[in-house]
């Protein structure tokens, strides 16, 4: 009885080829594409192109329904390394590059606690301003945002929930206000101070900020593409890595095909001899 093993061997051969190429793509080409694009991105946009400043690193002053955050700006020359902010919650000056314009983004996450004892929740206005103290306190930007405040007489949504993690999740889902704004002000190199004011003009209450609240200062480039890459860095990394991955894969395929053709041609000549 004879068995034809040609087809199983062919299938096993093709499966081994596919597995080999797949492993090579995952283990070699994909990490190489990530590393190459990361090197390209950091050369095009240095790490100090954006500076994140938590509001915890500002000098804060609460007065009635108004909370102010003030901080000075220090100019650092290009030949010196830009010092980073220590995440210790203490007041620290903001270090920026000299002769460089910046765009200001803001992210706020906060709870509003109202001293009113009527109802379960109340809508109010949040308004904040970015002000230059070194320029006669000129107002750069103002924005009014409705927020939800929790009153003293509100029903406790945490009752009956004894798990600490779940209680925090319920609190965040019910009462956390979020606000994210981009390009709200231009920060010039001559600016010496910056002030952020958060007001509740129509409410008798206070604001409790999350540690994740802060401002992002981004270098303003002449090329719009670089500004977009700095703002949408996650999307840029995904697209850039995909482009590098496709390019490396194309080079790999062309190289393999050329090597195979050359080997076949040389092997054929040896067979004829």
UniProtKB/TrEMBL annotation:
Query: What is this protein called in UniProt?
Result: Seipin
Output the GO biological process annotations, alphabetical, semicolon-separated: acylglycerol homeostasis; lipid droplet formation; negative regulation of sphingolipid biosynthetic process; phospholipid homeostasis; positive regulation of lipid biosynthetic process; protein localization to lipid droplet
Phylogenetic classification of the source organism: Eukaryota, Fungi, Dikarya, Ascomycota, Saccharomycotina
Keyword terms of this UniProt record: Membrane, Transmembrane, Transmembrane helix
Molecular function GO terms recorded: identical protein binding
Instruction: State which residue ranges cross the membrane.
Output: 14-37, 236-263
Q: In the UniProt record, does the keyword Transmembrane occur?
A: yes
Taken from the UniProt entry, a GO cellular component term is: lipid droplet
The record's section on CDD domains has: Seipin_Sei1_like
Entry annotated with the keyword Transmembrane:
yes
């Amino acid at each position: 009885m004879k068995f034809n093993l040609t087809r199983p061997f062919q299938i096993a051969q093709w499966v081994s080829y596919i597995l080999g190429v797949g492993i090579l793509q995952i283990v070699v080409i994909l990490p190489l594409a990530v590393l190459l694009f990361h090197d390209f991105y950091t050369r095009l946009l240095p790490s100090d192109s954006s500076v994140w400043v938590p509001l915890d690193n500002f000098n804060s002053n609460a007065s009635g329904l108004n909370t102010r955050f003030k901080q000075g700006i220090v100019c650092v020359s290009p030949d010196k390394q830009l010092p980073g902010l220590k995440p210790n919650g203490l007041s620290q000056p903001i270090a920026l590059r000299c002769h460089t314009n910046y765009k200001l983004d803001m992210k706020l996450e906060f709870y509003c606690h109202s001293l009113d004892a009527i109802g379960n929740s109340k809508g109010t206005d949040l308004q904040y301003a970015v002000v230059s103290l070194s320029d006669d306190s000129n107002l750069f930007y103002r924005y009014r945002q409705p927020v939800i405040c929790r009153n003293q007489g509100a029903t406790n949504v945490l009752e009956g929930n004894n798990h600490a993690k779940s209680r925090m999740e319920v609190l965040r889902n019910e009462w956390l206000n979020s606000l994210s704004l981009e390009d709200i002000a231009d920060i010039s190199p001559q600016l010496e101070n910056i002030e952020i004011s958060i007001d509740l003009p129509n409410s008798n209450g206070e604001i409790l900020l999350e540690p994740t609240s802060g401002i992002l200062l981004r270098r303003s480039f002449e090329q719009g593409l670089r500004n977009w890459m700095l703002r949408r860095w996650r999307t840029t990394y995904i697209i850039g890595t995909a482009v590098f991955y496709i390019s490396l894969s194309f080079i790999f395929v062309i190289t393999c095909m050329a090597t195979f053709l050359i080997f076949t041609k040389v092997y054929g000549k040896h067979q004829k001899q």
